[in-house]
Every structure is written in structure tokens, then in C-alpha cells.
Amino acid sequence: MSDTHVAGVVGSLRSRSHTRTAVRAALEGAEAAGASTQLVDIRAYDLPPLNPDVDDQGDGADFRSTIRTADAIVLGTPVYHGSCSGVLKNALDHCGFEEFEGVTVGLLAVAGGSFPITALEHLRSVCRALNAWVLPYQAAIPRADAAIENGQFTDVDLRDRVETLGDRVVAYRSIEPEPSTFESGQNKGA
């Protein structure tokens, strides 16, 4: 058993979410690689729209604490209007460098329609702004209704791709950060 702990954040509020199914599959891949895992369901947290003038809004402190316990993170999002879900973005807004700097992050996006690449690009940009180490490997599930039924993958190849994402966050969780540069020292956050 690895000493790696992986948190899988579900960026969907739907009760029968294909994103939740996919994040669970990624966590199964992480478990197969020897990690302990935790499904972090945003529905369990009261995360009001972030107001930076107010300290500790809702369950923001609890959410941040949960994320800080992870050695690696899988972020799963449904695709809304070509981007990540607003609830996931808001949850990430409640976090900062303490939660993400130097942490390995794997990305996964689920779309009802065609390939969800822009949502993955947007999440990658957010995570890089937080100085996370974002895996180049990512998982995308287009036409999710055809790939997932009743909370189970029907497309074995896609399930394998998602499980591989979980395996990779464990494999690369201890990657050494790049040496500091002038530019990296200038990223102070918003």
C-alpha cells in the first residue's frame, strides 16, 4: 500500500451524475495503484459564491482542510457551455496555494455532447495559476449518456482511460517541482 492519499472532487450537483461515476472510476484506479482515496462531493459542502471580503464563508474552511489532506487530486467536471461547472470553479476559488501548490492534479471532464477539451483547458489554467503540477494525461468522456448507464461505464475503453488517470496521479504524486524562476516568484495569486 502506498502512503499516497488521493482526493477526487466531484464538480457536479446532479444526484445521478456521470461525473461522479467517472471520479469514482478514477479513484478505483488510484486504489489499484495502492493509494487511499476519498470522494469529495461538493454537494456535502455549503460553499456560497466566494466573497474575498468575508472570512470563512460557509464550509469553505472544511473544504480547504479536506483538500489539504490530499497528496494528489482528481478534479472532475461536467461541461457547461464549453467550460467547467460553476460550482467546481467556486469551490476552487475557496482554495489557494496552501491547498494546491506543488500538488499533482489529474483532470477529467464529462460532456453530453462532443469532446470536452475546453473545460479541461480551463481547469488546467486554474490549477496552474495555483502552482499545482497538472498531469499532461487527462480523461475526457464525450457523449456520456452512451458511455455510462445506471452509474456504470458501458464503454470499457473510456473506463480504462479514467482508471489510468487515477493510476497516474499516484505515479506522479511526488514529482519534483521545477526550480524557482523569476516568473514563478511573481505569481502571488489574486
Automatic annotation (TrEMBL):
It comes from the Archaea. GO terms for molecular function: FMN binding; oxidoreductase activity. Residues 5-144 form the NADPH-dependent FMN reductase-like domain. GO terms for cellular component: cytosol. Its cofactor is [4Fe-4S] cluster. Belongs to the SsuE family. Isf subfamily. This is NAD(P)H-dependent FMN reductase.
